[in-house]
Here is the input.
Amino acid sequence: MSDFTENLRPCQPDGASTLMLERSQSSLPVEELANYLLNQDGFLDRQKIILPILEKEALLSKTGQQNLSRPDRFKLGLARAKLLRRLADQHGWSNEDYRIAQYLVDEMSPFALQMDMFLTTVRQQASDEQQKQWIPLIDSWKIIGAYAQTELGHGSNVRGLELQAKWDPRTKEFILHSPTLTASKWWNGSLGRTANYAIVVAQLLLPKRSPASQSQETEYISYGPHPFMVQVRDLETHQPLQGIVIGDIGPKYGYMSMDNGYMLFDNFRVPHSTLLARYASVDPDTGAYAKPKEPAVVYGSLTATRARIVSHARLVLARAITVAVRYSVIRRQFPDRDSSGGPELQILDYPTVQIRILPLVATTFALHYAGAAMQQVYDSARENIEQREDFSDLAHMHSMSSGLKSLCTTLAADGIEVCRRALGGHGFGGGSGLVQLNNDYLSKPTVEGDNWMITQQVALHAIKKMAAAVKSINKSGGDKTEIRYREYLREKQLSSGGQRYYDVLTSDSAIAEAFERRAISLAYHAYELRIVKKTPWTKIMILSYRLSRALSQSILVSAFHEALQRDTTECKISPVTSVILRDLYRLFAFYTMDNEAYEFLNTEAVSQEQLQALPDKIQTLMERIRPHAVSIVDAWMIPDYLLDSALGRYDGRVYEDLFHQAHRLNPLNRITFNVNYHDEEITKGTGDNGLSILAKL
Here is the structure.
């Protein structure tokens, strides 16, 4: 029987012609903007080479993968991870090439931790001798690693970890032991079924004194959490070693192909050499502890991961807004109420859709510049630590990475969901391309530190800086934060009740200054409460979150503004591009300011009159940006292979693809069901029933 649907086409104007028209009406030079954003380090050039290699591999096809069960998704994920390693060897990919391939395949692979937290920790925490032993084995993939820090009972509070590493001076070994159920390692990626080694973070316990006799019980002192390189599985059989209980924690919101694991130790002995000893060590002969010059340096891997998360947030949100913008210019609903007989409007022409999507388009650029600023601070701090043992930037780096991780992942995670809802009913379907993106990225607001809890670290740093500024108000010098805090305090002393509000409506630099003023004012308020008035910490935790958010928003705005000033002056972008980017800068800043209006008013950074003018300014900016929306998202150069979205296809064939996936690719439509409720059979002619289905689990 012929299928009459093969000859059906969407009503006109169709998606393909709509996107062509949108692109032709924008003056934005897409390729120029794309190279400016993504190709300064050759990323786009490498993507063009790697993408065709991946698309040729049947194993890397994404068609229908949403229909797989969790066990099958993990098996597929492992098969793909192994294939990517073979392709890397075959084509001579660098580590960066391999990361680009992982990014395009878009699957949290069982090998994902190998080159990130596992290798990073060894490079940063292991002694030179340990690095010579371990790094060749990691680079050659002879060992596959995980990073085991988080426990069932503790995550953000690293100091509260319960796993013990007791030093036995008689055998010169550490004894790893899980004294409670909550001491179980938990959530550790690649640990459940894949890794044969792990960086295990445990409380280092050293004897308080040598026992006078065998009958006396040794007292131990905790020296805090330290990393150990531990073999957890046999390299031949891949079974857990004796004394270790290990497994996968089970289904999750996302990451179906990642084996997040649990692990417990029963007095498991490891040699002295397993303690990563670049900064802290235990003398094997005397048992004496050599502490690091800066205790926080042991959290370097965590900071590195947070910095990468911040840098990656832009690309995640860019995918969501690419789908949202392309679909919302193709989708048409209802004619204009003020015109009789007119065509249906593109939904992106509705201000109620624009206000949800276009500020997120601007946010993606703010995340881009903030990520670059974060990476620069991280690289500089690591260089100082590794080459000069200068730890002076460590506190600032840790604070900045904590605050930006909290804000940027919140913006990206919330933004994906806003985009999904703005797509209407089709946003709920698998063809949106946002299901896996949404589910997988939902981990980021809690992984590597809960987004609310880690803001305390930002607030503590700001309060400490403000306290130092109060004591040295008339001094000069210091870092940028110290200088700005002193300037604020001196201005506050000279103020006679009047306040110079920033003219944010006419000056781009004033916008950045207003964000900074609001953040510094909140820092001073937190200082007054905590240091001057001795307010209990729990009473200012909500303020701490607001302070961290304000400081991080200030970084996003200032990084955006400084980059535009610099890159326009250096002619890295054309005048046309510069104008559009400045509109995006103002839209992000004004939209954020409007949402935080109370704080800008309360800190006397922006006047009430200017705050009241923001909604009209925002709408005007959206009207200016709207004609370029498709070209702007095109500049992120996200290939259809990565988007995996019927709604966000580059060619605009939205409805054709949605119907094709449902009508021809959906395996459920190839099964005939028995719907007679008197009969327990489920699938016609098979005799199966509900219990037989459950028995397969």
